[in-house]
Amino acid sequence: MNHSLVPGRTARASLAFMAMFVVVLAVLAGQATGARTATTLVVQDGEAGNTARIAALKQLDKMFEKANPGVTIKHVSKSYDDLVKTDALQLSGSNPPDVTHVNEGLGDLGQLVKANLLTPLDAYAVKWGWAKRQSPALLTIDGRATPTGQIGSGKLYGIATTGDWVGVFYNKAKMKQLGIAVPKTLAEFETALATAKTAGETPIAFGNLDKWPGIHEFQSVLMAVAPPAQVGNTIFGKPGSKWSTPAVLKAAATVQKWAKAGYYSDGYSGLGYNDATKKFVQGTGVFTITGTWKTGDMASGLKNNVGLMLLPAARAGQAPGALASGGLAWAIPAKAKNRELSAQYINFITSPAAAKVIQAAGDVPAIVVKQKPAGVKGDALAGWAKLSTTNAMAGYMDWATPTFYDTVTAAIQELMAGKLTPAAFAKKLDADYLKFHKS
After folding, report:
1. Are residues 387 and 361 in the same domain?
2. Residue 329 burial by CB count (10 A; 0-12/13-18/19+): exposed, middle or buried?
3. How many helices (H) and strands (E) does the chain have?
4. What is the pLDDT along the chain (439 residues), one digit of tens a residue?
5. Residue 33, domain member (yes or no)
């Protein structure tokens, strides 16, 4: 027997065993990789049509995937209308998304909480310090609700990545031509409107065919004459609140006066929101009242010739308030299969790192940023910083009851057309509001 062959045979056996061991490890590694790769997080937004925001979200998705190897994000975009019409049915089903946008307000977020369809986020907010990122007013506006569905208090169910506020865009060249300085009080703004009208200009580019823009017009004036907390308390249904107040009557009288004076676009009731905005970008109108989500369009069309300001308060030196909220709030469905990972995703897209991506896309992050660019984009960030610092913001008045959107949009149309007096307007709002809250 050639003993010299034994070591070789042993070596070959060892090599064979090692090879098998490597194969087993590779298989196990492949299985583990497969398991990680199979972790798909389904994220649903309500921003279809908002190209810049969706592009920013897709970039954030890639960043999250890179930071979490093995996670794949499946991103679904819906229109706002589709989102709010289908969310209750979708979230009550057996296969909801892991993370979804929800609309704030009693009729949407409140009803989803009441039906136990959303996951409370308070523990995650404490874990990651969300209260240090966003103002108390914003967290309350965007995501707090009680078990009965009342908004404005209770647990946290939603948090936004962006900050939206409604203000006044103005054409700098037209203002210079007309000798109009940036108004510092509501009275000065009204004087500017009169000057523009006398000069043959359209004072406020406005279209109300879609109905909801009328809320911007009315509530912006209301925020200039009423304390923001008072408006917020009414929207949140605080005991004793109502719409028949001196501030609401004054705001209603002001808006009706502006309509009668011809300060809005000719034929505004039959003019669409996007068409009115497009006309302003093309040079028709000295002012237009809309949200910061239009900042990118304004900057692209009017370049350095457009500015943005908060509608000034009625009293000189008074901090102006505004109709404001985060963008649509991010929430975790109660039936989501990856709730911990979903929470990590929400934490990431509301982080300072994500804020830089959002700002680079020309949007306003919910987090207040220190470095601000020049021009209208800087105006949007500065206004948000002021509102966040002073908590001088209130959500949308149509959140007040499940049917209030229909009530308030119809009432504003009638008010502007002179078919309702300010007192009758406020009474119509209270008929819906008080009936709901008494029940």
Report:
1. no
2. buried
3. 18, 12
4. 333 333 333 333 344 444 444 444 444 444 444 334 579 999 999 998 777 788 899 999 999 999 999 999 999 999 988 998 999 999 999 999 999 999 998 889 999 999 999 999 999 999 999 999 998 889 999 999 999 999 999 999 999 999 999 999 999 999 999 999 999 999 999 999 999 999 999 999 999 999 999 999 999 999 999 999 999 999 999 999 999 999 999 999 999 999 999 999 999 999 999 999 999 999 999 999 999 989 888 998 999 999 999 999 998 878 889 999 999 999 999 999 999 999 999 999 999 999 999 998 888 999 998 878 889 999 999 999 999 888 899 999 999 998 999 999 999 999 999 999 999 999 999 999 999 998 8
5. no
Query: 117 lies in which domain range?
Result: 39-162+327-367
Task: Describe the crossing of helices 246-260 and 186-198 by its angle, rounded to 10 degrees.
Answer: 10
Computed on alpha carbons and rounded to an integer, the radius of gyration of the chain in Å comes to 27
Residues 301 and 401 in one domain: yes
| Cβ contact 220:322 at 8 Å | yes
CATH number, domain with residue 265: 3.40.190.10
Could you tell me the pTM of the whole model?
0.83
Residue 243 and residue 386 in one domain: yes
Same domain for 192 and 65? no
Residue appearing with tokens 């049917």: 403
| Residue 15 domain flag | no
Question: Cα–Cα distance between 273 and 205 in angstroms, integer?
Answer: 9
Q: 276 with 338, same domain? A: no
Number of folded domains that form the chain: 2
